[in-house]
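Table S2 (text version). Query chain:
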Amino acid sequence: MLKKVFRRQAYYIASAAFVILTLVYFIAIINQTYVGLDLTDVNGQWIVASSDPNGEGYKLGIHVGDRILRINNQDTGEYRFVKKWSQAEGASTIESRRMGQPTDNLINISKRPDLLMLLNEIPMFVLGLIFWILGFIAWRKRPFSVQARALFWLNWFMGLAIVLAPASSRDLIFARELEYITLSSVSILLITFVSVFPRHNKNRVNLLGRLTLTFTSVVIFILTVLQSIGIVHFNSPLKKLVLLSLIIGILIMLWNLGMLIKLPNDKPEKNQVNIVLLGMAIGFLPFVSLTAVPVIFNFQPIVNTEVSYLFISAIPATLYYVIVHKYLPDSRRILERLILFLVMGLIINFVISYALFFLRVVKTLNLKVYLATLALSMPCMVCFSLIRIVINKLLQKFVFSEELQGYKKRVLKLNERLTSINEEDRILEEVMRSLAVTDSV
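Corresponding structure-token output:
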């Protein structure tokens, strides 16, 4: 009995920890500007290896190849974030020298980020909260389901990794360490989830993949701790190892789901797999192909991490839908709803962008502004949808009549037998017959 109580309390404790970490790191990024400079030591001189166009360093004129002489009135090599992660985050002053120029430039960096930067960062926290909320609700509705429990922990770790991303880019305390450890755990949890969804699937690929990624996670944990305390300096290889382990976990998960497509059409698990595979493909493939793979091969990411994370929002929505709902419409309906949602998001984002321009919140309209507002509007639309669902449930419980409640229950019961779009006409006939609708009416 005590074991069950403790196991139940663990979900509440984990949820409280998630909310606290989200609030702490969100407040922290409001008070620290993103510099965006990665440095490398070349014969004792610290040279800019990459300068993120979204960072304050690039905006103030520090580009790839520039030499960084001093940070916050310290020699560059003695600056704590340079010693730990080879980055100039947390800097308030940077003394640099451009190639071929004899004079030095002293650049002052504002402590607080501008509005556009915050517009880029807020959606990450919103998306992370969506992951946790949907995982928590799924567990609350299906507390005895092993699939719901697996979904909670998968969403918890994925949501936390997303929340930590903007804090990690600023080298806030323990943010990068937690991000690497969390991301390495996500790959294991992906395999764990498909091992119990839609049914227990203990094949050799799952077993071997889990053992391999568990070993990799231990290596990442050890290297992250050693890197954090300054014993080793494997920042770039460590980042690539984390992304590689995540890609391996995603590929094994997609392979498992792909093999389950062979299930007969009359099996309800077939449609569940179709929906989850659709959501996973939409969510992960843009991130892997446009962000993770270029980083592993030392290329500039094709799109910003924030943009590729927009697609990841399809993952918690589809997983929650499949685990919680007792009946499922045809997966083609889900695709239609996703397309409609994206079109609505693009239209709303277009309106918001022009509204910000006419209100003079932003000075110009360009792709950067459009992507920033898109990254904010899409998660907000998901939140509004969740709020609408909650309000609808409350109205059904406390306002609507019992007769209407009974009507909805009968319709839901009939929908449980819906396995294909082609059965809609039959369902309509059964609804009419069930409600005693006659020709004389």
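Notes on Table S2: DSSP finds 15 helices and six strands in the chain. The first helix runs from residue 2 to 30.
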